[in-house]
Write a structure and sequence with these properties.
Blueprint lengths: L9 E4 L3 E3 L1 H16 L4 E5 L3 E4 L1 H16 L3 E5 L3 H9 L2 H4 L2 E2 L2 H11 L1
Length: about 110
């Protein structure tokens, strides 16, 4: 997983492949480390994720709770059609703010602040 920072004080987490139980643990650790570095906003870029199972969805929800508990915000971008369908079926599209891509996220976020 890669990460980058910008003037918005956000960090990007980029899981890849199948977001399942194994990746879920790594995802939560990555996000926790980023929050420890005082990142206020976490952007999870799912461009390289091909499939998410129930434990992957659970990891996203627990990551959201962890970020909110620490006073931060969590957003998601770059989901494929399979993940979008899963989000819609499970109403996760109402839980998470999903952006088309990181560029769109930066533009919308900068416009609001």
């Amino acid at each position: 997983m890669e990460h980058m920072t910008s003037e918005l004080n956000y960090e990007v987490v980029r899981p890849n492949g199948i977001l399942d139980g194994t990746q879920a643990i790594q995802l939560r650790q990555e996000i926790s480390q980023r929050l420890d570095k005082t990142a206020e906003i976490i952007l999870i870029d799912l461009q390289e994720v091909t499939f998410i199972d129930s434990s992957g969805l659970g990891a996203l929800v627990s990551a959201l709770k962890m970020v909110r508990t620490r006073g931060g915000k969590l957003f998601i971008c770059s989901i494929n059609d399979q993940v979008r369908m899963l989000f819609e079926l499970t109403s996760m599209d109402r839980v998470f703010k999903v952006f088309k891509d990181e560029y769109t996220f930066k533009n919308e976020f900068t416009a609001k602040n």
